[in-house]
Every structure is written in structure tokens, then in C-alpha cells.
Specification:
The complex is a heterodimer. Chain A is mostly beta strands. Chain A is 0% helix and 56% strand. Chain A is globular and about 45 Å long. Chain A starts with a strand and ends with a strand. Chain B is mainly β. Chain B has strands at 5-7, 10-13, 19-24, 31-38, 42-50, 53-57, 64-68, 74-78, 87-94, 103-104, 108-112. In chain B, the strands form 2 sheets. In chain B, strands 2, 4, 5, 6, 9, 10 and 11 form a 7-stranded mixed sheet that branches. A 4-stranded antiparallel sheet of chain B has the order 1-3-8-7, with no helix packed on it. Chain B is globular and about 35 Å long. Classes of the chains: A mainly beta, B mainly beta.
């Protein structure tokens, strides 16, 4: 199939703690893995992406890791802040067949003050 | 640069009617993709247009159609509306086809009664 499994569907953490969201994909030929953040009532926006030639990428408090062998990738947010509260979507670029971005179901992250 | 613009932002229709949604991509972007967002299904790919041609299509019935004009603006149409078509329809543009960052619009929220 072409689905990407995203876990957990909801996540609640204390401000300052870390949050981790994991995704598993099926297309072994995939080479592009972005993460989008959607705040309440807003449009999804790209926050970080990784290509298959690297295993990890960091941007300040967020990082993404990729394990191509296991076909899973994860988003890590450290030192969480209230403005991190949003829905996060992982995605992968499907290469086999019709090329398109396939999105996960989303994770609703709530940061508790 | 102006972002991706979608119209109308909100609309209410009744079953059996048809609806047309419009999307103006970021200037210079030639690829336009459409997604359906529902609470339980996340972001579901509808179709992608590049240079006025449909390049990819998702698993939606033929009631869902679209087109792209020479100025890269795109429209999608849903005929014979069903209750289950109620959703947020998001348009996204990118520089090239099926690759790179997607820039989303605010979406058109369709309610079918």
C-alpha cells in the first residue's frame, strides 16, 4: 500500500519536555520526507524535511531522523513551548507509480504549561 | 510575494449540487496540488496539475475533477455532492512537479447539508 502510519495520534507533554512523533512508510524507493505543522485554523506549513541520503537533520529545537532500512522516520522537538501546540503531519514522496506526497493521519500535540 | 489564495473560504451546499473551488498559486509556481482534509482521514491527495495537465490523481471518484489554466491558476469541481464530501479542501503550489516544498492555501471549507 501507499499509506504512512503515524503515531501517536495525540500527544500531551509538559512545557520544556521533549516530544517524539514516529512515521512508517511503505515505498522503499522514497527519497523525500517532509514534516508539516498545522496550527488551529491555519494552513499546513513545512517545518523540516530530510532526503534519503542523510540519517538526521536538525534545525534549532526540531530534528528529524530517518531509518531507510526499517522504513521509518521521526520528528523530535526538544524544550517544547506553548507555540509548539499544533497538528503535525509527516509525509513521504511516493516514487513507485504516481509520484505524490502521501501524508500521515496527523498528531495533535498539546504543550501543557 | 503573495501566498496561495483560495476562494471561497467557506461555502454551504446541499446534496446533489455541484461546487467549484478556485486556487491561485504563488507567482512563478507551476505545480498545483489539491488535498481533502477531514478529521479522521488527514490529508488525502486529490490530484496534481502541472503546465495545464493533470499529472497525478488520487483515489477519488470521478465526481471530483479539476483543471489548470495557462496562468497556473487551478479550479476543482465536485459534482453531485454527498454528505461525506464535507471537508476542508486545500490547494498547494510548488515550483516544480511532485517535488520540493508545498505551499498551502488557507483552504475552502465545504459543508454539505
Amino acid at each position: 500500500g501507499e499509506n504512512v502510519e503515524q503515531h501517536p495520534s495525540t500527544l500531551s507533554v509538559q512545557e520544556g519536555d521533549s516530544a517524539v512523533i514516529k512515521c512508517t512508510y511503505s515505498d522503499s524507493a522514497s527519497n523525500y520526507f517532509p514534516w508539516y505543522k498545522q496550527e488551529l485554523g491555519k494552513r499546513p506549513q513545512l517545518i523540516i524535511d530530510i532526503r534519503s541520503n542523510v540519517g538526521e537533520k536538525k534545525d534549532q529545537r526540531i530534528a528529524v531522523t530517518l531509518n531507510k532500512t526499517a522504513k521509518h522516520f521521526s520528528l523530535h522537538i526538544t524544550e517544547t513551548q506553548p507555540e509548539d501546540s499544533a497538528v503535525y503531519f509527516c509525509a513521504y514522496k511516493r516514487v513507485q507509480g504516481a509520484q505524490k506526497l502521501v501524508f500521515g493521519q496527523g498528531t495533535r500535540l498539546t504543550i501543557n504549561p | 510575494k503573495a501566498g496561495v489564495t483560495q476562494t471561497p473560504r467557506y461555502l454551504i451546499k446541499t446534496r446533489g449540487q455541484q461546487v467549484t473551488l478556485s486556487c491561485s498559486p504563488i507567482s512563478g509556481h507551476r505545480s498545483v496540488s489539491w488535498y481533502q482534509q477531514t478529521p479522521g482521514q488527514g490529508l488525502q491527495f486529490l490530484f496534481e496539475y502541472f503546465s495545464e495537465t493533470q499529472r497525478n490523481k488520487g483515489n477519488f471518484p470521478g465526481r471530483f475533477s479539476g483543471r489548470q489554466f495557462s496562468n497556473s491558476r487551478s479550479e476543482m469541481n465536485v459534482s453531485t455532492l454527498e454528505l461525506g464530501d464535507s471537508a476542508l479542501y486545500l490547494c498547494a503550489s510548488s515550483l516544480a512537479q511532485s517535488t520540493g516544498e508545498l505551499f498551502f492555501g488557507e483552504g475552502s471549507r465545504l459543508t454539505v447539508l
